[in-house]
Specification:
By secondary structure, the protein is an alpha+beta fold. Among the domains are: 174 residues, no CATH class; 79 residues, no CATH class. The protein is 40% helix and 16% strand. Helix 2 crosses helix 4 and helix 5 crosses helix 8. It is globular and about 65 Å long. It starts with a strand and ends with a strand.
Length: 376
């Protein structure tokens, strides 16, 4: 057991290292592109995917020579799926993690269903609703609008949207292609994870394994941090059971932090390169105390944009602004909106990284433009 105090800088460098943002990963020697992508997605315990394409940028920022087809092929082959998981939000995960994580996150979805749609589903046996919804989506993948309309024929006194969301919470639903296929467009259509993957969810999944997976990707962290990432509550008992297998630290405020014994904790002075982090990236969503990556003032700037979480610019390891890509005929522009004045050398590094990102995002667009907006 350790009472060592970890500074904010030390926590920042540990997080960046585990998120593969101190350096990009070449993957295991000899690994094929598909293996590298699955390995990274599983290492990160999934990527948040509220929008279809941010995970492509998230992988680009972490994997050397990543190409969009590397991920798109895995979605098409059903090795990677999109499903509601942590915090009730859509995540991109491997097939293995889908079947393991989904039953563990069920309480989060149950709580959200009761809070938002509970009254609108009064009088419905949820087991019957789940069975009816499962039959419809396994007959053929359906949008929530289509699913709600069909269910309302059986329950005409209940809002179709509430019926569809009830099925979303009660049945593991994956979004099927062409949704989230790079270069393609498609509505979000759903079928059950079991039908899509040809396997049942894992009945032996354990919360202990979920917590250790989190620590491997986001630690050192407090119990409150794990709960913020997962949406689950009352994890202190799980942490206490794991304690003999973990190391303990304190942050500068005295909060207990848990970690895997052999997990990397780099020297706080380790240089951190400029990074452009994807929209919705779990890097900035997965701690109760996010000051290890973004100041409280800048967090408020970032989290007040109508529920849209833009891409984040990291300078010396911390969020220093946001970025966005806009396209017009024959041109693509990446605009950076800094939170504070940026030194010339960092501005030059951002420009170089932004040009690389535009080459990835818009390779067939002849004109690429980097712009710096006013301080937000």
């Amino acid at each position: 057991m350790s009472s060592e105090v970890l500074s904010r800088q030390a926590l920042n460098r540990a997080l960046l290292d585990r998120q593969m943002l101190l350096r990009t990963s070449p993957g295991k020697p000899g690994a094929r592109p598909a293996e590298r992508v699955i390995e990274m997605v599983e290492h990160l315990a999934g990527l948040q995917a509220q929008a279809p394409f941010p995970p492509y940028y998230g992988l680009w920022s972490r994997l050397e020579d990543f190409r969009p087809d590397d991920l798109a092929a895995l979605i098409l082959s059903r090795n990677i799926v999109r499903i509601a998981l942590m915090r009730g939000t859509i995540h991109l995960v491997s097939a293995r993690d889908c079947l393991t994580f989904r039953p563990l996150i069920q309480p989060v979805l149950d709580r959200a269903l009761g809070t938002v749609f509970g009254k609108q589903l009064t009088g419905i046996d949820t087991r019957v609703l789940a069975a009816a919804g499962r039959a419809l989506v396994e007959e053929q993948p359906r949008t929530f609008s289509e699913l709600g309309a069909l269910l309302s024929q059986r329950w005409p006194d209940h809002p179709p949207a509430a019926l569809a969301q009830g099925v979303r919470a009660l049945v593991p639903l994956v979004q099927v292609p062409p949704r989230a296929i790079w270069g393609a467009a498609g509505q979000a259509r759903h079928t059950s994870a079991e039908a899509w993957l040809g396997s049942p969810v894992n009945p032996d999944a354990s919360l202990e394994s979920l917590v250790t997976r989190y620590l491997g990707a986001f630690g050192p962290a407090s119990v409150r941090d794990v709960q913020a990432w997962s949406g689950l509550t009352r994890l202190q008992e799980i942490a206490d059971r794991l304690r003999p297998r973990l190391r303990t630290f304190r942050d500068e405020h005295g909060t207990e932090l848990l970690d895997l014994p052999d997990a990397p904790r780099p020297d706080p002075a380790t240089p951190a390169p400029v990074r452009l982090v994807a929209e919705f990236d779990n890097l900035v969503h997965s701690h109760a105390d996010r000051t290890r990556i973004i100041s409280e003032l800048n967090r408020k700037r970032l989290f007040t944009r109508n529920g849209i979480f833009p891409g984040t610019v990291l300078v010396d390891g911390f969020a220093a602004g946001i970025w966005r890509i806009t396209r017009s005929r024959g041109a693509a522009a990446l605009t950076v909106e800094p939170f504070e004045p940026i030194r010339k050398r960092d501005r030059d590094a951002i420009t170089a990284m932004a040009l690389r990102l535009l080459e990835f995002a818009a390779p067939d667009t002849p004109a690429h433009d980097i712009r710096f907006g006013p301080i937000t």
